[in-house]
Amino acid sequence: MLQAPTDTGRQVIRTFRAHPSALHEIRRFVRTQVELEGFPSSAAEDLVLAASEACANAILHTNSAAIDVQCVFSHAGAEVRVRDTGIFRRRVVVPVLDEGHGRGIPLMFALMDEVSIHEGTTIHPGTLVRLVKYRELGNRSAPTARAR
């Protein structure tokens, strides 16, 4: 988990209309916040794309009126949280039938260092997707042997 983002860094949250026309504005918001923190362009693009996919899922698969996008930064990295007011529906992707759909979650996992999805239910609606990208790849490397 990203180390104490609320204690050591900056947080920005913004609410967007849950409509496909808002995706451009969401991407611009995330890109601006990540660039202000000095992330390399490749890491910034990964965060923007993963956040865009999470938001697109909220827009396409829920009846949410709005989506909250929160960017949390620490010395270790960035965390983008996408929250809707909908119900998460699990489904098996069948590429032959889905014609280009169903690749958002696997893409998020491929681009991010950590991904978590807290699924909204009929009793407790509201899905939260957490996307984490570390500043340095070294944070994920295997432990090195210490000299004795």
Task: Report a brief summary of the structure.
This protein is of the alpha+beta class. The protein has helices spanning 5-8, 23-36, 41-61, 95-98, 104-111; strands at residues 11-17, 66-73, 77-83, 114-118, 128-134. It has one domain (5-135): 2-Layer Sandwich (Heat Shock Protein 90).
What this model shows, in words?
It is a single chain. The chain has one domain (5-135): 2-Layer Sandwich (Heat Shock Protein 90), CATH 3.30.565.10. The chain contains five helices and five strands. The protein has helices at residues 5-8, 23-36, 41-61, 95-98, 104-111, and strands at residues 11-17, 66-73, 77-83, 114-118, 128-134. Helix 2 runs antiparallel to helix 3. The chain is globular.
Layout of helices and strands:
Elements: H1 5-8, E1 11-17, H2 23-36, H3 41-61, E2 66-73, E3 77-83, H4 95-98, H5 104-111, E4 114-118, E5 128-134
Helix pairs in contact: 2-3, 3-5
CATH level-four homologous superfamily name:
Histidine kinase-like ATPase, C-terminal domain
Number of helices: 5
Return the average pLDDT rounded to an integer.
83
Task: Please tell me what the overall shape is.
Answer: globular
CATH architecture: 2-Layer Sandwich
Terminal CA distance: 30 Å
Strands of the widest sheet, in order across it, are 1-2-3-5-4
List how many beta strands DSSP finds. Answer: 5
Largest sheet: 5 strands, antiparallel
Q: What count of structural domains?
A: 1
Strand content: 15-25%
Q: Assign the CATH topology.
A: Heat Shock Protein 90
Taken in chain order, the helices and strands follow as: HEHHEEHHEE
What's the CATH class label? Alpha Beta
Specify Rg, calculated over alpha carbons.
16 Å
